[in-house]
Amino acid sequence: MPDKTDVRAQLRDAILRGVYAPRQRLIEADLATEFGASRFTLRNTLIQLEAEGLIELTPNRGARVREISPTEAIEITEIRQSVEGLVAARAAERVTDAQITVLRQIGADMVEAIDGHELMRYSELNVALHATVREIAEHAAADRVLEQLNGQMVRHQFRLFLVPGRPSTSLPEHLEIIEGVCTRDPARARAAMEIHVGSVIATLKEFAEAVPVPL
Fold first, then answer.
1. Rounded distance, CA 165 to CA 171, Å?
2. Which of 206, 176, 208 is nearest to 193 (CA)?
3. Which of 8, 47, 71, 95 has its CA 20 to 30 A from that of 25?
4. Number of domains, the chain
5. Pair (15, 98) in one structural domain
6. Which pLDDT belongs to residue 152?
7. Cα-Cα end-to-end distance for the chain
């Protein structure tokens, strides 16, 4: 039988991949069968995922996937802006020559993906860039914070990816982040990251304004 960590990782990954939609109910008995876990293990898993902000637990109603509103997405991204700026600055202080080569290759691949209209590849490289900067920074506390924040933002990140022209707008921002880190300039790296995440916030605000206010 899978241990608690395995079940948590599997269910978390399923939620992040969109296997379970926002507001969808999570039935303990069904999940226990699906993941081959005991009800006790599964209940502990749900409690952990609620603490991460991925699900909601309601007395007598069970669990459901939590839906993040555009307004909350903005607030989450504002926190991410500060943390990612810190991480980029630290990466600029710690980056090695070998890591600079990796970052510059990611940048070149991003340009190639945009030129070739390979948007899915560009999206994957976006994830790889941010992960590489975090890896270079080696800031464990920031990693934990960003993992939780990014987990809550998956649905909105997908919507950002679909915004017409968004990849072309973000490309120069990503390239500037790479330059800031590769030139070992912490202030430049931090500013570039904060500008990039700030543009994400601006786009999320457009979403928020487009959402009808309930009567």
1. 10
2. 176
3. 71
4. 2
5. no
6. 67
7. 49
The 8-class DSSP code of residue 211 comes to: S
User: Do 31 and 42 contact (CB within 8 A), yes or no?
Assistant: yes
Give the separation between CA 81 and CA 132, rounded to whole angstroms: 17
Question: Average per-residue pLDDT in the chain?
Answer: 86
CATH of the domain at 58: 1.10.10.10
Answer whether 177's CB lies under 8 Å from 87's CB: no
CB 176 within 8 A of CB 85: no
CA gap 155, 167 in Å, rounded = 17
Per-residue model confidence as pLDDT tens digits over 83-135? 999 999 999 999 999 999 999 999 999 999 999 999 889 988 998 999 999 99
Same-domain check for residues 203 and 153: yes
Separation of alpha carbons 36 and 112, rounded Å = 44
Whether residues 169 and 110 share a domain: the answer is yes
Same domain, 81 and 52: no
Predicted TM-score of the model (pTM): 0.75
Reported confidence tier of residue 139, pLDDT bands at 50, 70, 90: very high
Residues 61 and 74 in one domain: no
pLDDT exceeds cutoff 90 at 213: no
